[in-house]
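Quick entry, no commentary yet.
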Amino acid sequence: MSAPDPAGPPREARRARRSSPGQLWVAAVCTALFAALTITVLTVDGKRPLPGDQALHTWALTHRPDALTAAARTLADSGTGLWPYLLAALAGSLAGRNARERTVSAVAALAVLLLGQGLRQALMLAIARPRPPHADWATHASGFSMPSGHSTTSALVAGLACWAAAHGARRILRWCVWGLAVVWAAGVGLTRIYLGVHWPSDVLAGWLLAAGYLTALAAVTGGRVPVACAPFPANSRQRRHLRTRDMG
């Protein structure tokens, strides 16, 4: 095993800081699809629902028994309010290896979520798409329709959970977290269609926005835990090396 590079951070850390072409391509594709969907909605007279929107909306209205509607409301509630921020902070804390790293990672995860929320809010106000008719709603909703706030928020939190699991969990636990996070985010988004407060294209826009934003951020930062850029060695072997170098 090669010794740490005395001239700077270890080679692994320098490689982690490089942008991933794959992540950049995913971010570009998601951004392009989001832009195409937004332009399509804006060019429709009155920002009316797209053909697929109306068909799925009508299906939801005719398949809403009380039990499923109540369950959908409960699941949707987990994607708004304080819950997403608590989950994001928890995900960030799990990515650290000690108290300091857990604190910094939790704050970084919250910052990523808040920045994403600000971007979503700005786009929602700029697009200003009306929601489905109020008579079709089976829950409370506010604001404009696109992109869906619940869908974007839950997808952002799911992405942060997947990032945390990739850095701080064993393989089996990692796959469990990834699966649960994706299923939860998808479920929250679908409830917004089922409850009649969003068009399907609103939910798709939220997913695309979250995916594009997170993959672009991961490409820029190398997807590393934020504390990796701090001037402290990542492990005891590197700390011993620096202590020896300083004594010399």
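second:
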Amino acid sequence: MTAHEAAMAPEFRQITCPGEITPELRRQLTDCWVTVSNAGGAVIPAEFPLPPVSTWDVAPVVDQLAHGLDPHRRRLLVATVENALAGWLLLRRDEHPLVAHCGVVNHVQTHPRFRGLGIGAALMHRVRGIARDEMGLERLGLGARAGLGLEDFYRKLGWVEVGRWPGALRVAPGDDRDDILMSLIL
């Protein structure tokens, strides 16, 4: 490993309680989400307008996400490189007893300036261990937007496509995409 590669190796941190999100991390999460969304990323929750989005659109959703953190039900996994947020995701467990053994991965993001460094894959490998070893989950699920190559990215990491909702996502007028449902047995 070169000195540059070592310097660019991500550090991971799990955040399980609202009080663990500092104002600086909140700012970086918001900035990442704005940047990723406006670059065409597939991380647009119902609370956002379609891009372009602004800090004013995203910050309240980050706050809502932060307030919902709980070590048993919702965890944030962040990757930093030299103290800068390089990527993050949310891992959540449904409380209903029929599906409490399953988790869902949401909002997988890599900041565009850190793309191509393996941050997304590293986050996905790390969340697998957290889900299995710390939360006792047996299966993970996620939804991916078709047309971006995301299904190939997840397949390479062991995820399996288990279904599609054809045309379920309207990215723009006349641009409907499949919502690809993927699963990973832990």
